[in-house]
């Protein structure tokens, strides 16, 4: 009966998921529905990879109308198909560039750099605020603005933040959605759901009996509390729920499961009931299989993934977000030959999952290393055996599928948002060229041109600011 109810809950979640995606993408963004005449931009691409997974095309024009792709046509057009109709037309010359859809990162932490996770207190694991470490939520928001802009400069037009407080990244996401600044599209989890003393629990011992503080922190014990914790993050406006199903390196809490099966099921079923997807931080093969059986949408890291888990993930369509950059190794491990490298090289979970046909999305765990260096993940993926085209597809088409936004992003096709980047060189021949993004357009707005970022804020200064005093 319990399994049947779980299936009913997950089936019932399908409609809310569609409605959620519609609400997220209906948010106002820079370049969205203009009040004046249409804006048309003709992007001349020397080489265009409009749909990663298909062959690139030469000498193409991407026609952008306002915030969306209106057409993709051969040759370098001087006017849009059917004429401009009185709209202003601009031409962007990328005839010596390789153009592809905006990149996506499914696992970042915009509030920190480097991130030591949301550490437990009272166990000697706390670090004082320092470079990149927010001492207050306001400082966290400032960090998130800076790091989000670095991510956009690196060509990542959509990112998913999987662990922050209840204010900082929410404020930055909302400012970007409202058109107050130009930044990457942000989907965020807020506080990760964790058990008392687990990876992600940052409540002080003085708050052990304070239910309000614990729930706001995402800390819960037992299925009833865990349902409440999910609903709390959803009420705050979380786009996704993250659960820390095992311990973690950054909190020094080990690699083994930390939640009971009924807690995992409560978290996932509640999120799906609300139309929100779930990402599970999981190392242990037991915890991975537990989460997959409960219907989780993605496994983050998955370093100890075993053959049974791979088979379950493939059968269920569960995504692996391998975050190779977080294990090979990030700067947070200030020791030679850290354990993350040993485990990664011993289990080779990424290589085995890829060979078996498990769905793989692109995610880096940026924040455990410098934001803006996200593209180094491509080098690891290809270095460990992934074809360059599949790596590009993972960072566009597949991550868009994981996010549930394939109707809006992931490829450069008519009707989709005009998110595109350009590089000098061919990433299919040398994937490392993606470390030097030359041009970025997000929702039809140019954010980077000729290697230089443009003004981040889109609103005009108030008249009072320039009036004589």
In brief:
The protein has 469 residues and is of the alpha/beta class.
Structural overview:
It is globular, with a radius of gyration of 22 Å. It has helices spanning 2-12, 14-25, 137-153, 168-177, 211-217, 222-236, 261-273, 285-293, 307-316, 339-347, 349-356, 376-383, 388-403, 463-466; strands at residues 39-48, 57-65, 68-74, 88-101, 103-108, 156-161, 185-188, 240-244, 277-282, 298-301, 319-321, 420-423, 437-442, 445-449, 452-453. With 469 residues, it is of the alpha/beta class. The chain is built from 14 helices and 15 strands. The strands form three sheets. It has an eight-stranded mixed sheet with strand order 3-2-1-4-12-13-14-15, with no helix packed on it. It has a four-stranded parallel sheet with strand order 8-9-10-11. Strands 5-6-7 form a three-stranded parallel sheet. The longest helix is centred in the first third of the chain and has 17 residues, at 137-153. It has two domains: 39-102 and 413-451, Urease, subunit C, domain 1 (Roll); 103-403, TIM Barrel, CATH 3.20.20.
């Amino acid at each position: 009966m319990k399994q049947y109810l779980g299936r009913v809950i997950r089936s019932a979640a399908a409609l809310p998921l569609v409605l959620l995606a519609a609400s997220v993408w209906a948010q106002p963004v820079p370049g969205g529905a203009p009040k004046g005449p249409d804006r048309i931009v003709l992007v001349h691409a020397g080489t265009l990879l409009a749909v990663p997974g298909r062959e690139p095309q030469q000498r193409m024009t991407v026609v952008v109308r306002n915030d969306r792709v209106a057409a993709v046509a051969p040759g370098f057009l001087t006017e849009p198909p059917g004429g401009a109709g009185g709209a202003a037309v601009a031409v962007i010359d990328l005839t010596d560039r390789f153009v592809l859809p905006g990149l996506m990162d499914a696992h970042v932490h915009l509030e920190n750099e480097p991130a030591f996770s949301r550490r437990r207190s009272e166990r000697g694991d706390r670090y004082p605020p320092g470079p990149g470490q927010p001492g207050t939520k306001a400082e966290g928001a400032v960090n998130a603005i800076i790091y989000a802009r670095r991510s956009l400069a690196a060509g990542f037009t959509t990112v998913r933040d999987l662990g922050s407080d209840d204010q900082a990244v929410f404020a930055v996401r909302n400012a970007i959605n409202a058109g107050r600044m130009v930044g990457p599209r942000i989907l965020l989890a807020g506080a990760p759901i964790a058990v008392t003393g687990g990876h992600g629990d940052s409540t002080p011992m003085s708050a052990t009996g304070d239910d309000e503080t614990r729930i706001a922190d995402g800390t819960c014990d037992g299925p009833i509390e865990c349902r409440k914790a999910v609903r709390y993050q959803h009420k705050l406006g979380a786009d996704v729920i993250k659960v820390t199903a095992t311990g973690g390196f950054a909190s020094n809490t080990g690699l083994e499961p930390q939640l009971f099966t009924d807690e995992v099921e409560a978290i996932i079923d509640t999120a799906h009931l609300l139309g929100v997807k779930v990402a599970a931080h999981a190392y242990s093969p037991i915890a991975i299989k537990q989460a997959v059986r409960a219907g989780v949408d993605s496994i983050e890291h998955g370093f100890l993934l075993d053959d049974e888990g791979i088979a379950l993930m493939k059968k269920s369509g569960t995504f692996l977000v391998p975050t190779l950059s977080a294990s090979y190794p990030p700067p947070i491990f200030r020791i030679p030959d850290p354990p993350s490298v040993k485990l990664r090289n011993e289990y080779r979970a990424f290589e085995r999952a890829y060979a078996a046909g498990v769905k793989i999305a692109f995610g880096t765990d940026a924040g455990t290393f410098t934001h803006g260096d996200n593209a180094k993940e491509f080098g690891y993926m290809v270095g460990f055996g992934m074809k360059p085209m599949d790596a590009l597809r993972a960072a566009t088409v597949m991550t868009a599928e994981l996010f549930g936004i394939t109707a809006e992003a992931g490829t450069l096709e008519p009707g989709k948002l005009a998110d595109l980047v350009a590089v000098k060189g061919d990433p299919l021949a040398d994937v490392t060229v993606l470390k030097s993004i030359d041009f970025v357009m997000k929702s039809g707005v140019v954010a980077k041109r000729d290697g230089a970022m443009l003004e981040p804020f889109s609103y005009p200064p108030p008249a009072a600011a320039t009036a004589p005093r």
